[in-house]
């Protein structure tokens, strides 16, 4: 198994944890409209399910970017009852999270490689 397969499995595992957390939450609120307050709770659950927020600037940037994209995505469902859009909402959230985690992983790997390359320079 190569490193990219391991990375995909890691990403899928993180997304799966988020889905396992969100499904019971959504089921509990099926008859409610997706209000800004409920959207905020969903965003907090997603961010809370991810690894604890490290103090690294790239991690803070990632969390802020993910939050903004999640808010934008959830806004499209605003005012709909969750029972009317549960599956689509869950698919949209998991797609956003997967893409953002993959992008973050790529950037972190790239930054790490650049640091190693710079560290190896001899003048």
TrEMBL record:
The protein's name: Pericentriolar material 1 protein-like
Pericentriolar material 1 protein C-terminal domain ranges (all copies): 9-112
Coiled coil segments of this chain: none
Lineage per the UniProt record: Eukaryota, Metazoa, Ecdysozoa, Arthropoda, Chelicerata
Pfam families: PCM1_C (PF15717)
């Amino acid at each position: 198994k190569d490193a990219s397969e391991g990375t995909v499995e890691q990403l899928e595992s993180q997304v799966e944890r988020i889905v396992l957390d969100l499904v019971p939450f959504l089921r509990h609120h099926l008859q409610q409209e997706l209000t800004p307050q409920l959207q905020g709770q969903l965003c907090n659950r997603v961010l809370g399910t991810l690894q604890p927020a490290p103090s690294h600037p790239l991690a803070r940037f990632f969390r802020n970017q993910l939050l903004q994209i999640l808010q934008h995505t959830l806004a499209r469902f605003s005012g709909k009852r969750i029972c009317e859009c549960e599956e689509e909402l869950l698919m949209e959230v998991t797609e956003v999270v997967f893409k953002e985690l993959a992008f973050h992983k790529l950037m972190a790997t790239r930054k790490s490689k650049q640091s190693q390359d710079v560290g190896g320079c001899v003048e």
